[in-house]
Structure formats: C-alpha cells, structure tokens
Design goal:
- By secondary structure, this protein is mainly α.
- The chain has one domain.
- It is globular, with a radius of gyration of 19 Å.
- It starts with a helix and ends in a 9-residue tail after the last helix.
Length: 298
C-alpha cells in the first residue's frame, strides 16, 4: 500500500474511531459516508479466507480508529463527569438528527404489519433494562465479582456495534448498560492499579474483536436474508436509545448540579446543535452517495 493510500485510510479510520467513542454517533454511518462500509464488513468477515488483503486493508483504518479514541478520551471523560446533562443532551440531539435519513432509507424497503414487532422488541428491551435495579455505573474495580470479568467480553461485543451496524451507536449502548463511564474511569486507573485495569481493558478488547467478526457475519446474513425486518429493528434500537440514555444514567453518582438552570439551558442549546449537525451530516452523506449505493442489502 502506498503512503498516500495508507494515510487516507488512516484518516478515515480516525473519523470512524471518533464516532465509535461518542455516544449518539455511529461508526458504521461514518463508514457509509466514506464508501468503505461494505469493504469493512467483507474484510472482517473474510479475514481468514483472504488474510493478506484483508489485513492490509484493515490495518491503517484500525490504527486511525485507535488514535482517535485516545485523542477523544480525556475531553469526553471531562464533560460527562462535569456536565452530564448538557453532554447527554448533545448525544440525544445527534441521534435525533440522524433519524430522518434512517427512516427514509428504511421505508424504501417497504413496511408490513409484522415489522411493528421488529421495532417494538429492541425499543422495549432498551427502555426496559433501564429499570433493572442493579443497572447504573458498573463497578469495574478490583472488588468486582468474578462473573463481571466474563460479562466484559459480552459488553465488548456489544460495543463493536458502533462499527458494524449503521445508525446504532455502540458507545450509546455502553452508556445505557452502565459501562461507558466505568470503562473511561478504568483507563484513568491504569496509573493506580495497572494490573487489574489492563485485565479489564484486555477482556473488553477481546469482546470487541469477537464482536467485530461475529456481528459482521451476522449483519451480512441478516441484511441479505431479512433486509426489511433488520432495518426496522435498527430503527427500534435508535428510537429506544434516546430515552434510555437519560433513564439509565446514574445521576446520583455525579458530584455536580446535573439539573441546574445553567446546565438545562446549555443542554437545550447543545441538543439543538447536535440535531442540526447530525441532520446536515447525514443529508450530506445521502447526497454524496445517492448515485452509488453501497449497502450490502442494496
């Protein structure tokens, strides 16, 4: 691979990585914008069959994504700890702004009465789990239960949705399940308890890798065999994520006036900003790619 192509792929990977760590933004959507979504899915699915080509295609993208995640870590941790309400309002705005394009693309595939089930099930699941008493910022400290280490692998697989499923934010799902802030705090804890923190992050990373391969294959199958139902299920996930981020967030754990007048005003403005920015971005992506369909199910 030439240097120019490498850095171009690195830049695209950085954009995807930044989207992966920001709740409300889908890395899969960014990949769609750059016309690399189908190539990513195929490279991940066919890594064993065509290792050399797949590896060198994925390498700069993965390196760029990792670099972006590292760069975005500290700002995100700062704002979600100091100003949770405005930050979550921004995330919600980003999701709402992307919804019109998702609905427009999905309705093209048609709608049947049975698709209501595909919408309701994921929506009800996301909202329902917010009322589980133990849900909140999960304890990932050294005193965490043994089963928690195994759950980390599953949670990592869930986070991989940020890349594999267009329109679904894996980091938003982490936020809903109570792992988003805990994972960020674990990175900070590397200086204090390196051994335990690196174990937690390693297990989470294993889950990410497993998820990339398994969910990529699953999505390839579902989008090919059940394109309409799968697309409506994604709509259900996105709609359910909006109230779920507020219901699942552990407001009592934050040492700041989360619902102060200043924070509510800032949250309203950021929500509007996120909505407009996300809508403009997805409209631009739609206009750029309308003459070149590249989703696997099209």
């Amino acid at each position: 691979m030439k240097a120019k192509e490498f850095f171009k792929s690195f830049g695209m990977g950085a954009a995807v990585g930044a989207a992966m760590i920001i709740p409300g933004v889908s890395g899969g959507t960014i990949a769609v914008l750059f016309n690399i979504y189908d190539k990513l899915i195929n490279a991940i699915s066919d890594l064993r069959k065509d290792f050399k080509n797949s590896f060198f295609f994925l390498l700069p993208i993965v390196l760029g994504a990792v670099a972006a995640v590292i760069a975005a870590y500290f700002p995100l941790k700062f704002f979600i700890n100091r100003a949770p309400l405005p930050t979550l309002m921004l995330f919600a705005g980003l999701m709402v702004g992307s919804f019109p394009k998702m609905f427009k693309d999905t309705i093209k595939k048609g709608f049947k009465k049975t698709d209501v089930i595909a919408i309701i099930l994921p929506l009800a699941f996301l909202v329902g789990i917010c009322f589980v008493p133990s849900l909140g910022n999960v304890n990932l400290g050294a005193d965490m239960p043994v089963w928690g280490y195994f759950v980390l692998i599953l949670i990592g697989a869930v986070a991989s949705c940020a890349l594999v499923v267009p329109g679904v934010s894996g980091s938003m799902l982490l936020l809903i399940f109570g792992y988003y802030t805990s994972i960020l705090n674990t990175v900070s804890a590397l200086k204090v308890d390196f051994g335990h923190s690196i174990l937690v992050l390693a297990l989470f990373g294993i889950g990410l890798i497993v998820g990339f391969f398994s969910i990529a294959k699953l999505m390839k199958f579902l989008l090919h065999k059940f394109p309409r139902g799968t697309s409506w299920a994604i709509i259900g996930f996105v709609v359910g994520s909006i109230p779920a981020i507020f219901l699942s967030f552990d407001w009592a754990a934050e040492g700041v006036p989360a619902f102060s007048s200043l924070h509510m005003a800032a949250g309203a403005l950021l929500c509007i900003f996120g909505l407009i920015a996300s809508f403009a971005f997805t409209a631009y992506a739609d206009a750029r790619n309308e003459k070149k369909p590249h989703m696997l199910n099209e």
